[in-house]
Sequence to fold (259 residues):
Amino acid sequence: MHNPELGEVVYDRDGLRSVHNHEFMDDLAFQRAYARGVQAVGWDYQWHWRVHVGLWAAATAAQLPGDFVECGVNHGFLSSAIMNYLDWNRGDRTFYLLDTFQGLDPKYVSDRERAGGILDKNRELLDNGFYVSGVESVRRNFSEWPKAKIIEGSIPETLPQIDSGAIAFVHIDLNCSPPEVAALEFLWPRLVPGAVILLDDYAYNGYRPQKLGMDDFARQKQVAIASLPTGQGLLIRPPDRPPAPGTAAVAPAATMVIF
Ligand SMILES: C[S@@+](CC[C@H](N)C(=O)[O-])C[C@H]1O[C@@H](n2cnc3c(N)ncnc32)[C@H](O)[C@@H]1O
Fold:
């Protein structure tokens, strides 16, 4: 626990060392949510500041209409913490939870990631239990929330099972770049203006291909991603730009109907 009275003023976990204020760790609602995340996994990743950002992003998105999506759920740490924090059963939103629930799909790994040893790492994470092997324990974890919709299988193949046209929050955490970018491409037109998108590994040490993929996406969409000291990336879905003067309501030539 953060306790300035006892001189515990330095946060030094999860690759982040900071003397800045982290009293969020003393907040009871934060502590309850964090503990629910630990319960989902069975151990503590010590990623308090990342979870703090995730809870802030989710609470901010909860001011908007729309459903929530997580791509990359694993045992369900962050999504369980969010559902506890927002008292999920009191609302009527769906939380879509997408994962293979058996590690990454080698089909959707980039050459650069493959060359960097991502498949060996995946095997190691499955063997040591960091990655969940099978969906059953995950279903049990989320059974207290009937509006959690678990979608099992590989992204991007499973994305069309997200049957919502209004999404307010997305957490992307697949630990590999191509399906992360594919997910954001798919979700972008379904996001409500102001929707909050949190990228778990955008700036995290050792995951640069994900940053490069998301930077390309952001350039195309003319949006900016904030690089956070936690290793996360944060962006907001802006409203669609109005068409430039004189171009409104002109259909593309290929779709024009001539009477
Ligand atoms: C770091 S974990 C997610 C952690 C989770 N967000 C949490 O709060 O603990 C990454 C997850 O991405 C999943 N994954 C990787 N590639 C995938 C793909 N192409 N389709 C679906 N799931 C994938 C893995 O199975 C793994 O569970």
Observations:
- The pocket of S-adenosylmethionine is lined by residues 72-74, 77-78, 99-100, 103-105, 108, 131, 154-155, 173-176, 179 (CB under 6 Å).
- Confidence is low (pLDDT under 50) at residues 250-259.
- The first helix runs from residue 28 to 41.
